[in-house]
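I am writing to request your help with a piece of structural work I have in hand. What I wish to show you is a protein chain and, alongside it, a tokenised description of its three-dimensional fold. Could you please explain, in whatever detail you think fit, how the structure tokens follow from the sequence? You will find the record immediately after this paragraph.
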Amino acid sequence: MIRILHLSDPHFGAADPAVASLFLSRAPGYSPDLTVLSGDLTMRARRSELVDARYFVERLPRPRLVVPGNHDIPAFNQPLHRLLLPFERYRQTFGREIEPVHTAPGLHVVSVNSNKPYGPYLDWSKGRITCEELKRADQRLSGAPGCLKVLVLHHPLVAPEGHRRDLVQPLDKLLEMTARRRVDLILCGHFHCSHLDAVGPAGAWRSVVSQAATVCSTRLQGEPQGFHMIRMTMERIEIERHVYRDGDFATETTFAFTRGESGWLSADAVTRREITRAS
């Protein structure tokens, strides 16, 4: 069994230090084989925020895989850094690679950068993946026989009911790629809302999606801080949703998915979904 601790969106600069410290004290007890932090480590990529985020990351259980989010790009009041060197501060703090890969016995994890500093659209916080980035992820996910395959990005692939924000684009091409490579699990964040689903093109391979809430930010979106603890075998994926209430983290719900001929199926029909086109 492989154990993955999935957290997202700590947003240092708008983080609750007591919640962050509590999480760090609890995390080693889960004995993860891998810790994944799926972006938005800071609010505006200010240097003081990056110092706090690095302190937090360095205390997460190893090995760990960390990717940037859209908030890890300098803000609009720092136009030169945003337009010319959007990921330089992040790289100076967390390493040059913004699409890290992790390989271990039975596990192959690939990441893709869904964050863009600017573009021909009004909302630059939206998630977009270029053809080159998609091709690179496709190549990295090829092979790895006998391994559980995991893809990590910041922006979400599915929206909770009633949620109106945009999903990562081009969603249809991303799902075609994950189906072709038979990806087992996709980890993301951004919405600050926990959501779990089994998704894929109609009639094709379905992957489990773990979208984690913010782990310690004060920027809540209708639910408390939380994280996911994931346990995986080749036949079953169980995801515990942990939430922060009354001064502690506690398991709220456990979701189970089983592997079939066409991918992963939720044991709870309420969470099953097929995506046939980009939203």
About this structure: Confidence is low (pLDDT under 50) at residues 269-279. The CA atoms of residues 19 and 216 lie 5 Å apart. The domain at 2-271 is CATH 3.60.21.10 (Purple Acid Phosphatase; chain A, domain 2). The chain has one domain: 2-271.
